[in-house]
Structures are given as structure tokens and as C-alpha cells.
Write a structure and sequence with these properties.
Keywords: Cell inner membrane, Cell membrane, Glycosyltransferase, Membrane, Transferase, Transmembrane, Transmembrane helix. This is Glucans biosynthesis glucosyltransferase H. Belongs to the glycosyltransferase 2 family. OpgH subfamily. Pathway: Glycan metabolism; osmoregulated periplasmic glucan (OPG) biosynthesis. It is a single chain. This protein is α/β, with parallel strands linked by helices. The protein has a domain of about 80 residues. Helices cover about 60% and strands about 5% of the residues. The chain contains 26 helices and ten strands. It has a seven-stranded mixed sheet with strand order 3-2-1-4-8-6-9, sandwiched between helices. Strand 1, helix 3 and strand 2 form a beta-alpha-beta unit. The protein is globular and about 95 Å long. The chain starts with 18 loop residues before the first helix and ends with a helix.
């Protein structure tokens, strides 16, 4: 089947039955709930004509409660569908096709730990080998790595893996000399070089791992629906040990299914793409999903950073369906293990999502695509808006000269607060209700005796984390709007606590804000302290709390008591078993070979030298260096050793095939005949 020969149907012609009804119901319920909340809020304010601060409070509250109401009714719809339909996970389609379209599995990497990357690669290849369709897949490790030592370790592990694997799935390795446009550019480079050879591509992240049966089913669904452009499988976070990581894993595993059910019901074939753990039809991706360069300079102009939402919108604009396969299991990723790493990732995402403000009004986008982009923007703008709402509320009280008001005003304020908290917290309750109808899944979480305390722990932690992230997001938004660019560096994926000095440096402003705010409230309006305590307490305790969240010991202590348990911890799935075994093998190999000595191994090992030269030749990545520079490198290596070169010099040398070949000869001669080599002059 040639994907380029397929003429897509219009999305409106292939919409999932009932999606329009779900959208209309969701819109009516959301607007009705928002209107009711606004009425309650106005009732609590009383006469607002004399207080200009309240004039701003009302529209601000309306926007914020609209967002909350939309999320509430999405989850409520998901609960209703979960209970009434009882959808089975990992369902498979019935297809008469004996073979699948040619599919490339793409793993872009950027200065990652090679042992982890190739453990994931090995696990997926071994998992595919258990299916009858392994020969329909090729796997590409697409390296954008800039660290020369990691680059060589990637090549070494790839070569070793290729020698060990005997299945029909090919594993290719390519490194770009320049990582233009980051991950989006990495995928685009693959499409330009090899895209026409494949009908489909499964895009992963460096920490992604997917079951072979899941990938086969994804390809089969794309084959059965020729109008399907992108099929996203929600990834489940696993494998991390810190308290903070286990909180994320538990909340995602317990709460997400109900919300995803509701989201899928109204998004239908106008769904979204999250940048990884998804399968894409290559030809329309090439035809429609080329990213524009935004006018102006970064951070809001230039290259689009958060490419996934935009690519989904462009695919839908081209008339192709974008769907969510929320019923498929076997799709995994890893999450940040400390609050600091989580905030760093969010800063990158914040800058990328704020660029979408300029794309919402782009010509030709479908209304639902505009909604997805707007939701991505609001996921970060909501924090400064909530902060502004809180400050305006305090200002309104100061203008009125009252801090608690009459008994009726206190009661009405409590009603508004309770109603807002109900909208925020109900989705978690809905997940527990859904669990009550699914005994096998309930037992995978450890039963009610473990689920209830775990939910209480997760809820308490999320309440304390919320004001911390509110300040972070507020700073990220303001700094982005003021023109500050963030560096998109390699993500820290390992477990590890944050030290005390680092916590003081990063979270000192949060702590100072919490302490000063608490002092001011206790002095001027002590009656409000209880109301604001979740915010003030979370900020005041940020330094010790951030260290507690990053604690691996606490995470393991909870795991030993089966708290914050996820089904994958109760019993490892087959792909995670393969991943764990492969990781042990690759880490053992990595520990036995010092990464800093790999350049010396490259110069002394003919096999390694041939492998590296072949990679440069096959990917056309060679780049000759100036002769003077080569002589300088040769002199330094032969007299002081390969480790004497700087990082930049090593990177340039690794791109020069001819210089490496000559150096290899001289280095080998020096090793084999040191007395003769001592009298020889470098080239």
C-alpha cells in the first residue's frame, strides 16, 4: 500500500458517531456551569459598583471557572462512558491483511544515556520478534547528540546490538552533524532522506518504550482506516523511584483513563498529537506538516518549539484524521524525578506553547484544532491569572476596608469556594467511582486499603505543589513575554535528590514569598490566613518539601508498603520485563568501558574505526577539518593522548574520516612499535 496514493476523506465525512452530540452537550454544560458560578460569585460580592477591583475580578473569574468547568465535564462525560460502555483495554481490530505497511520506528536522541536508549531499543526489537510482523518494521536511532563521548558510546552500543540481534527487524543509526530545529528537524531530516521508503512512522522519545503487539496494532489500525493521519497512544509514566516521580506515575495511571475517555468522545477524529508514542502516515506528514517559521525573533518568533500540537492541526487542515487510541496499552515513558527537573521541562514547554498564541488564528485550521492550541496556551497562562485573581481579591477587600465582611458575605464566599473546589476535585473522585466498577484493575492498585491512603497522599502533595508551580509558571510566562529565551538542553532522566544548596538557590524566592505573604496576612487580616493557608504553606515550605519530593528513599519506603502503587509495579508487563533485562546488560557493558576513553578505542580498534567511518559515509555526515587543525590534533594525541583534546576538537575530529584514518594508522603504529613511533614525526 502506497500512502501517497491515498486520497483522504474530509474529516467531517468520517467523524466518529456521536461526537457532535458530545461536543454540543459539553458546550452547553460548561457554559451553564460557568454562568451559575458567575452568579454565585456576584452574589458573594454584593454591590460591586463602588469597587473598581471587583470589576476586573468578575471577568477573570469567568475565564478561570470556564476552564475548570470544561475539564470537569470532560471527566464527567468520561465517567459516564466508562461505566456504561466498559471499554476493554488493548482491544484489537479485525483485519484481513496478512502483512502490514512498511513502518519506521523513530527514536530521536540528544545527549541521552546510551545504555538506557539501547536498552529500550533492544526491548522493542525483542518484543516485535514475538509477533508475526517484525519484518514490517525498521527502527532508526536518530542522534542529535553533541557530546563526542556520548556520540561514540552510541555508535559502540549500536554496533554491539546489531551483532547480537538476530530477528528480522533492522536497527539503523544516524547522527546529524547539526541539530537544526531540534526534534522536529530531526524527524524532518529522516523524512527527507528515507521517508519515501515507508508508509508509516512511529515517533518515540528517548525514554519511550512500546510493546511489539501495540505497535503492530497501531499499524493495523492505520492500514484499516486509510483516512487516518495520526494515531496517538497515551504513554504511561513508569520506572522512576523518587517520591515525586511515584506521585506522577500514580496520578497518571489512576486519573487519566477517565479523562481520556471523555476527551476522546468529543475530540473524536480531531484529536491531538503529543510528539511521541504515536504513529503517523508519512506521505501526508511530509505534504502538510512542514512547520512555518514565525515572524520576529525568539522566544515568540522564529522556529516553532512545541511542534506536536501544530503538526496535528496541520494534518487535520489537510483533511486527515487525528485520533487517540486510549484503549491501547503497552505504551510507556518516564517522568521527571524532582520538582526542579519538572519545572525545567515546564519552562521549555511554556515557551513553546506561548508561541501558539500566534497560530490560533492561522488560516484554514479546524475549530477543534484552534481549541487544542488555546488549551495549551491556557495551561500556562492560568497560573498568572490565578495569582492575579488572588491579589485582586485582596485589593478589593482593602478598598472596601473589610477583610471578612458580614456573616452573609462569609457564607456566600464559602459557597463559591466550595463549588470551585468541587469542580477541581471531582475528577479525582470520578476515577475512584470508575474503579469501583472494575475489580481486576482495583486489585492491581492494591485494593481500597492501599488506594484510599495513596489518593490522600497524592492530593495533599498536589495541593502543596500547586502554588509552587503557580509561581514558576508566572515567572516563565512573564520572562517569555519579555523576550527571555530558554535553552532546550538534554533532559535529566535519572533518579536523584536535589541538594540543600541548590534547593535554597532555586526555591528561595518561593520561600521568601510565602513567609512575607504569611506575615502580611497575619498582621493585616489574620482571619484570611486559614483561607490562604494552602498557598502560603506550600510556598513557605518549598525548600524542605522539594527535597522530600526528590527523595528516592521515601519513594522506596512507600513502594515497600504498596502505597502509590501502579499496575505495572504489581506485575511487570512483558515489554517492561524485556526493558529491565536489557538495561542491566547495557549498564554492565557501559560500566566496563570508560566513556572518556572511547576516542582512544576508536583510534586503536580497527573494527570500531571501520564502524564509525561507515556511519559517516552512509549518512553523508563527514566534514573535513583544516589541515593545520588536523596537524595540531595529531601532535596532541600522539604526545599527550586522545583525552588531551577539547570537547569541540573531539567533535570536529570525529567528523573527518580521512584525518581519523591517518590518525588510526599512526596511533596503532605507536601502540605496536613505541620505539619506532617515537622517532616518527606527525603528519
Amino acid at each position: 500500500m502506497n500512502a501517497s496514493s491515498i486520497t483522504p476523506l474530509k474529516v467531517s465525512q468520517v467523524s466518529q458517531p456521536g461526537s457532535r452530540r458530545f461536543r454540543l452537550s459539553l458546550a452547553v454544560l460548561t457554559l451553564t456551569t460557568t454562568a451559575f458560578a458567575i452568579w454565585l460569585f456576584l452574589w458573594s460580592l454584593g454591590d460591586i459598583s463602588k469597587n473598581p477591583a471587583t470589576w476586573l475580578l468578575v471577568p477573570l473569574f469567568a475565564l478561570l471557572v470556564l476552564i475548570i468547568s470544561f475539564s470537569f465535564w470532560t471527566s464527567t462525560l468520561g465517567l459516564w462512558l466508562t461505566i456504561t460502555q466498559r471499554r476493554q483495554s488493548a482491544s484489537t481490530s479485525q483485519s484481513s491483511h496478512s502483512s502490514l505497511p512498511r513502518t519506521a520506528i523513530l527514536m530521536p536522541v540528544y545527549n541521552e544515556t546510551p545504555a538506557s536508549v539501547f536498552a529500550n531499543v533492544q526491548a522493542m526489537i525483542e518484543s516485535l520478534a514475538t509477533t508475526p510482523h517484525a519484518a514490517d518494521f525498521d527502527l532508526f536511532v536518530l542522534s542529535d547528540t553533541t557530546n563526542p563521548d556520548i556520540w561514540l558510546e552510541e555508535e559502540r552500543m549500536w554496533g554491539r546490538l546489531c551483532q547480537r540481534l538476530t530477528g528480522p527487524t533492522n536497527v539503523f543509526y544516524r547522527r546529524r552533524p547539526k541539530n537544526t530545529a531540534r526534534k522536529a528537524g530531526n524527524i524532518a531530516d529522516f523524512c527527507e532522506r528515507w521517508g519515501t521508503q515507508y508508509d508509516l512512522m512511529i515517533v518515540l522519545d528517548a525514554d519511550s518504550v512500546m510493546d511489539g503487539q501495540t505497535m503492530v496494532e497501531m499499524a493495523r489500525r492505520m492500514q484499516d482506516d486509510p483516512a487516518l493521519g495520526i494515531l496517538q497512544v497515551p504513554p504511561v509514566p513508569v520506572n522512576r523511584l523518587s517520591f515525586f516521580a511515584r506521585l506522577q506515575q500514580f496520578s497518571a495511571r489512576l486519573y487519566s483513563p477517565v479523562h481520556m475517555e471523555g476527551f476522546s468522545s468529543w475530540a473524536s477524529f480531531d484529536s491531538n498529537y503529543w510528539g511521541h508514542n504515536a504513529i503517523i502516515r508519512v506521505a501526508p506528514f511530509i505534504d502538510h506538516c512542514g512547520l512555518p517559521t514565525l515572524p520576529g525573533v525568539a522566544p515568540l518568533g522564529g522556529e516553532i518549539l512545541s511542534h506536536d500540537f501544530v503538526e496535528a492541526a496541520l494534518m487535520a487542515r489537510g483533511g486527515w484524521k487525528v485520533a487517540l487510541a486510549h484503549d491501547l496499552a503497552g505504551s510507556y515513558e518516564e517522568c521527571p524525578t524532582t520538582l526542579l527537573d519538572y519545572a525545567k521541562r515546564d519552562q521549555r514547554w511554556c515557551q513553546g506553547n506561548l508561541q501558539h498564541m500566534r497560530l490560533i488564528i492561522s488560516e484554514g485550521l479546524r475549530p477543534i484544532s484552534r481549541l487544542h492550541l488555546a488549551m495549551g496556551v491556557m495551561s500556562y497562562l492560568a497560573s498568572p491569572l490565578w495569582l492575579l485573581f488572588t491579589l485582586l481579591g485582596l485589593l478589593a477587600m482593602a478598598i472596601d476596608g473589610i477583610w471578612l465582611g458580614s456573616t452573609q458575605e462569609r457564607i456566600s464566599g464559602l459557597v463559591v469556594f466550595a463549588f470551585t473546589m468541587f469542580l477541581l476535585m471531582a475528577p479525582k473522585v470520578w476515577s475512584l467511582v470508575a474503579l469501583a466498577f472494575d475489580r481486576p484493575r482495583r486489585e492491581q492498585f492494591g485494593g481500597w486499603s492501599k488506594i484510599i491512603p495513596s489518593v490522600l497522599i497524592e492530593t495533599a502533595a498536589s495541593v502543596l505543589v500547586a502554588p509552587i508551580m503557580m509561581l514558576f509558571h508566572t515567572r516563565f510566562v512573564i520572562s517569555t513575554l519579555l523576550g527571555e529565551k530558554v535553552q532546550w538542553n538534554a533532559q535529566n532522566r535519572g533518579d536523584g535528590d536535589i541538594d540543600f544548596l541548590a534547593a535554597c538557590r532555586v526555591f528561595g524566592p518561593h520561600t521568601l514569598t510565602g513567609l512575607v505573604g504569611s506575615a502580611l496576612i497575619l498582621f493585616f487580616a489574620p482571619g484570611l490566613f486559614l483561607w490562604l493557608s494552602p498557598i502560603l504553606l506550600g510556598l513557605s515550605l518549598t525548600i524542605p518539601f522539594s527535597r522530600i519530593l526528590g527523595s528516592v528513599e521515601l519513594g522506596q519506603w512507600l513502594a515497600h508498603r504498596r502505597l502509590l502503587l501502579i499496575p505495572e509495579e504489581s506485575e511487570l508487563t512483558p515489554i517492561l520485563k524485556l526493558q529491565q533485562r536489557a538495561l542491566e546488560q547495557h549498564e554492565q557493558y557501559a560500566n566496563a568501558h570508560d566513556r572518556s576513553q572511547l576516542l582512544g578505542e576508536l583510534l586503536s580498534d580497527p573494527g570500531f574505526q571501520a564502524l564509525h567511518a561507515s556511519i559517516l559515509q552512509q549518512t553523508a555526515a563527514g566534514l573535513p577539518a583544516p589541515e593545520a587543525k588536523v596537524r595540531e590534533w595529531t601532535q596532541a594525541i600522539l604526545t599527550q593522548g586522545p583525552e588531551s583534546l577539547s570537547v569541540e576538537d573531539r567533535r570536529q575530529l570525529l567528523l573527518d574520516r580521512e584525518a581519523l584514518r591517518e590518525l588510526h594508522i599512526q596511533y596503532r603504529v605507536r601502540q605496536l612499535h613505541p620505539d619506532q613511533a617515537a622517532t616518527a614525526s606527525p603528519m
